[in-house]
Amino acid sequence: MSVINFATAEIGALLMVPMCLMAYPLKLEVRAGSLKALTRATCNLVLAFIGFPLAAFFLLKNTLEGFGGVNVGDFWNWVESLWAWNSATYLYIGMVHLPCWVLCIHILFHPC
After folding, report:
1. Do the domain assignments include residue 1?
2. Total domain count, the chain
3. For 29-85, how does the pLDDT look when each residue is reduced to its tens digit (9 = 90+)?
4. Domain of residue 48, residue span
């Protein structure tokens, strides 16, 4: 991915690597009940939320522009511009980021 778009690969790595390395079933964390386990569970939930592309987009946009005028249409315009520019980010989100995110969510909510 870095050959095509280094910035996309870097941002993806900053989101995906911690999320994938920390994924651990929440049910086991709750059973353990220690402070370490609950801290790890909290980090897992925060990373899973931030790692979802739509949530990450809105958090970034709200941080840069404020919470006033962001809507789903902004996300759709961004996705359309990626498609129109033949950006590798579109491929990265669809073929790397979302499958990794789904796998992490599956691990987090695994019934054990």
Report:
1. no
2. 1
3. 888 888 988 998 898 888 888 888 778 778 877 777 777 767 778 878 887 887 788
4. 6-108
Tokens 């919470």 locate to 67
- Whether 1 shows a pLDDT value over 60: the answer reads no
Any domain includes 37: yes
Is residue 1 within 8 A of residue 96, CB to CB? The reply is yes
Burial letters 24-38, b for 16+ CB under 10 A, else e: bbbeebeeeeeeebe
pLDDT at 53: 78
User: Is residue 50 included in any domain, yes or no?
Assistant: yes
Q: What is the full DSSP assignment across 36-62?
A: HHHHHHHHHHHHHHHHSHHHHHHHHHH
